[in-house]
Amino acid sequence: MQTKSNSSLQTLTQEDAKGFLQKVENDITKLSTPAAHAAWAYATHINYDTAKVNTYFTEQISVLYAKYAVEAAKFNDVQVDADTRRQLDLLKSNPEIAFPADPAKAERLATIGSDMMGIYGSGEYCRDNDTCLSLVQMSAEMATSRNPDLLLEYWEGWRQVSVPMRDMYAEMVSLANEGAEQLGFDNTSELWRAKYDMPADDFPKELDRIWGQVKPFYESLQCHVRAELSEYYGKDYDGNDIVPLDKPIPAHLLGNMWAQSWGNIYDIVKPEQEMNVPNVTSALQNQAYDEIQMTKQAEAFFSSLGFEPLPDTFWERSMFQKPEGRDVQCHASAWNLDDVDDLRIKMCIQITGEEFNVIHHELGHNYYQRAYNQLPMLYRGSANSGFHEAIGDTIALSITPTYLQQIGLIDEIPDASNDIGMLLKVALDKIAFLPWGLMVDQWRWKVMSGEVTPEQYNELWWELREKYQGVAAPIARGNDAFDPGAKYHVPANVSYTRYFLAHILQFQFHKALCDIAQSEEALHRCSIYGSEAAGSALNNMLEMGKSQPWQEAMTTLTGQPDMDASTIADYFAPLKTWLDEQNAERQCGW
Known about the structure:
By secondary structure, the protein is mainly alpha-helical. Among the domains are: about 1-95; about 115-170 and about 200-275 and about 425-495, no CATH class. Helix content is about 55%, strand content about 5%. The chain has helices spanning about 1-10, 15-45, 50-70, 80-90, 105-120, 135-145, 150-160, 165-180, 190-195, 205-235, 265-270, 280-285, 290-305, 310-315, 355-370, 385-395, 400-405, 420-450, 455-470, 495-515, 530-540, 550-560, 565-570, 575-580, and strands spanning about 125-130, 130-135, 250, 335, 345, 470. The strands form 3 sheets. Strands 1-2 form a two-stranded antiparallel ribbon. A two-stranded parallel sheet has the order 3-6. Helix 5 runs antiparallel to helix 8 (about 165-180), helix 10 crosses helix 18 and helix 21 runs antiparallel to helix 22 (about 550-560). The longest helix has about 30 residues, at about 15-45. Mean pLDDT is about 95; it is low at about 1-10.
């Protein structure tokens, strides 16, 4: 029997591979459309029945992808053309977590994943028998409270939730690595790192190269924020600085449960001089915009670039408001339910400037989805995991005072002396995020490759956070803690590198498009609104989907194949000068 099996494997041909890929496309397409409708029904009307149907289809799609990923590995040594090889490789590397072939182990892996998400989803911190707080409630408090004792209590309280996950996570890694080996990878770490059109071992080095380009700017931002926080919080009950000026910043004081973005503490670190920044929220409300008008204006942005209008069904089927009398997922998202033109967004739109940005971002996803809808199924997606998020963010970078004046939301454009406040707000969200976006998967890659034991998980987590972020745990953390599990993406097994890449790529794309649009404004003031040349260049890249290595998609728009963070320095140049002035007499570093 073994000899016969080996013989049959040796007879596989390129035609067999092409036939296999066609079967994969047919089978997954047949299931993916009803699965997408089930997911939409659940997201827009959460109840027992929609949950059951959504869970069923989610499991069916996952099982089918896993089955075909294993079968694709049978063609590893078959001579095939480049297009066929690319589709086979994409199929093999599609899963975030590869299930073992052994049914009992596969079931156990699924159970662990479900259990960890159950722990996270139902997690709460109880101050006493009568007062229990959800993550949403604690996050809201951490965004606005300036009481360090309360912030520490909530920070520590949420991290009690993830303690039981540690051993489960270790077992999950072991089982997932077995599944990855069956696909031809050494472990899940290699599976994740192999998704980027370069040798898996080279990808972390590429990320460190990019991080090196932006690290000096981040260190200037961290230095200023630390100094302002130290002055604001002063000393503790023992006379010690709550925020020492020669150490990492305590993680609970940055306005966010994970210290991943710092925009909520703008009031503490903002410039002393008054800043005249357009109030988009007031402008929208004064002009009686509603959620449809806001979305129509975002569509008009893309139309000004030469894109076709959204289909009528977009307006008929999208969810723009939270419906009365039913539970929904309000988290903004963009959908293409049939992988052709059933485009939708799902939002509970508030009439605010922030939501106006988000709508432009979400439509960026929709236009990307439509651009690649003629490609084979395995090519319908982001050139690499960062491109989709980056496209939406790139569009949002064009919501400048110039654009706001062009569409009649503001009358006058504030002069450049007001730019520091705006740039600082952007940096507190986007630049502060970068080292966090980098280190989450740096931790997972080491865990998944077996470089550290479960007893070292938490120690490694904080080593990386101090190394990259200059942020430290506010209290001692024992090896029995599992602080990584306090972030959704870890128990959910959602890779995080995409967000780091998106935060780099958006500025690179923005500069390329501003150059094509022949903007004469400073990069942070440029809007590509109205430039059909920029729209055409953007669409040429979007239409490629993932049919080619991402380096070729990058070259199509920017003229070069490499990711380059130097455009961040261009965008934030006035802020960097201001930060250097603020930090002139300060001791930076940690």
